[in-house]
Design brief:
433 residues, six-stranded mixed beta barrel, 15 helices, 12 strands, 17% strand, disordered N terminus
């Protein structure tokens, strides 16, 4: 009896496989007959699936790029920057573009904050833009006026030739400068820049160092900057005594939150501000851990938003497929009636039309994956040629999600036309004109 049961089950499996092959053959034949319609039907699915691939790849690449950029300032740092009280960030940016300035943030604030037990070193800075001249070469360069602790905290700034200025030179207002890699090439070419004199806003500065090539970080291009001592720039170039921001190095990252609270408290006391009214603050304190979390939330939100748009595209494509399949059912009504009159069961008719829909969405899914992958490669190539490599890659989970979405939409939007076809009356179907 056991042998007979196995034999019966084997025969059933063979029958099912044969049935599937027959249905697949009929489905492909039907789709081949209306090739142009099949191609046009898949466009919505292709766009939706391609968008999923592009968004997931771009979202992860952008997240990694932002994390790398933020960590370039020092993952173990806390930033203190000037802020206009009682305004939003957008209003503050607009006010600054109109020339508004907050001059209350001083290097002395950072000297005081350095005394906190969990703070190591610091650097503070301010930016300016001046005409820079060496012999007959003239460039408008960004001046990064900073304290000597910059290279100790920002490990990405490496000196390729010469050296960086020290604390004694910074406090004595020494007229010395360190050139970014690209700016050195533009001003000096192959000539050695160390020890040479350049003019910044008609003031002579001695070049003591040249940085290694670093590239851009957000809106900073360190390779085109000139690093000068903060006090020198304040007195000789800018005519100010304030800074726009600074970074404090944290010794113990597990105590970052407490350190941020301590910094906020000290800054409010130094600036004579209310102890419990953040709207009155003329400064902002942000740890790099907070910045990373904030960036993660932003990129996640953007990714979800664009995926929602991709979902809408898939729904539109799915509705289009459902309408086309419904039209196909009407066109093949007599064929369905004839097959049912010859003994075809409802489930066979339903499976065939459902399989046709799945094939359409499957083909659209594959085409969407290929198209999306091409776009991702092109984006990475273009951004790389512009000096911004986002590290976009096609991940396995993105491909699996895209395929699953295509198959799910194929089943969801193909089920109604398939059932409609399977429940046609053979007599009425054969009479259909």
């Amino acid at each position: 009896m056991r042998f007979d049961t196995n034999k019966k089950n084997t025969a059933k499996k063979r029958f099912n496989l044969g049935e599937f092959k027959l249905l697949l053959s009929l489905s492909l034949q039907a789709l081949e007959t209306n090739r142009l319609r099949t191609i046009l039907t898949t466009i919505g699915i292709i766009i939706g699936i391609a968008t999923i691939i592009i968004v997931l790849s771009a979202g992860r690449g952008l997240e990694k790029y932002i994390i790398d950029q933020v960590e370039a300032f020092g993952a173990d740092t806390i930033e203190v920057e000037m802020k206009i009280p009682n305004v939003s960030d957008m209003e503050m940016m607009s006010a600054m573009m109109r020339g508004a300035e907050i001059t209350t943030l001083k290097v002395e604030d950072f000297e005081a904050l350095k005394e906190l037990p969990n703070i190591g070193n610091y650097y503070a800075g301010i930016l300016g833009q001046f005409k820079t001249v060496y012999r007959n070469n003239s460039k408008t360069a960004m001046i990064y006026a900073t304290t000597a602790g910059l290279t100790e905290i920002d490990k990405q700034i490496k000196i390729g030739q010469g050296r960086f200025f020290n604390e004694k030179e910074e406090k004595s207002q020494a007229k010395i400068a360190v050139l970014g890699y690209d700016l050195k090439e533009e001003l000096f070419g192959a000539e050695n820049a160390i020890g040479k004199s350049i003019k910044i806003n008609q003031v002579n500065f001695k070049v003591i160092g040249v940085t290694e090539k670093r590239g851009g970080i957000f809106y900073f291009n360190y390779d085109k900057m000139i690093f000068v001592p903060l006090k020198t720039a304040q007195k000789q170039l800018l005519g100010v005594d304030h800074v726009i921001y600074g970074f404090l190095q944290v010794k113990d990252l597990s105590k970052t939150s407490e350190t941020v609270a301590d910094i906020t408290s000290i800054m409010r006391k130094r600036h004579s501000l209310p102890p419990d009214n953040p709207d009155k603050d003329d400064f902002r304190v942000t740890s790099m851990q907070e910045a990373l979390e904030m960036m993660g939330v932003v990129t996640f939100g953007i990714t979800l938003l664009v995926l929602a748009v991709a979902g809408i595209s898939l729904v539109v494509g799915g509705v289009g497929i459902m309408n086309i399949m419904y039209l196909t059912v009407l066109e093949r009504t007599r064929e369905i009636g004839l097959r049912k009159a010859l003994g075809a069961k409802n489930k066979i008719i339903e499976r065939q039309f459902l399989l046709e829909t799945i094939i359409i969405t499957g083909l659209g899914g594959v085409a969407g994956i290929i198209f999306g992958s091409i776009v991702v490669v092109l984006i990475e190539w273009v951004s790389g040629s512009l000096g911004y490599s986002f590290g976009l890659t096609i991940t396995l989970d993105a491909v699996l999600l895209a395929i699953s979405a295509a198959l799910l939409f194929g089943i969801a939007f193909g089920l109604y036309p398939a059932r409609k076809a399977s429940h046609l009356s053979p007599v009425e179907a054969l009479r259909y004109e």
